[in-house]
Amino acid sequence: MRPSERLKGIEAFVATADAGSFTAAAERLNLTNSAVGKAVARLEERLGTRLFDRTTRRLALTDAGAAFYRVCVRVLGELEAAEHVLAAQRL
After folding, report:
1. Which long-range contacts (CB under 8 A, 24 or more apart) does 59-68 make?
2. Which of 10, 25, 34, 37 is most buried, by CB atoms within 10 Å?
3. DSSP H helical segments within the chain, as ranges?
């Protein structure tokens, strides 16, 4: 897998977990509900595991999803910190 492929779907996954729904995540990301759902589904397929338990009324992280979420949040935070370091060096 190419390194650029590794991050695909992670922003949609984290936003969905934070928001508690695909619809709310889509609004936050300025995407369609379908785009967010497909991004998460492709991520699950690539990882070979379900990240969310879905019902018509509820969306909840699986145990694997919760573990993956914690790591993703940390990684995204590290990327943001790296960007801040670079921005500060430009000043």
Report:
1. 59/16, 59/20, 59/21, 59/22, 61/17, 65/17, 68/13
2. 25
3. 3-6, 10-19, 22-29, 33-47, 63-90
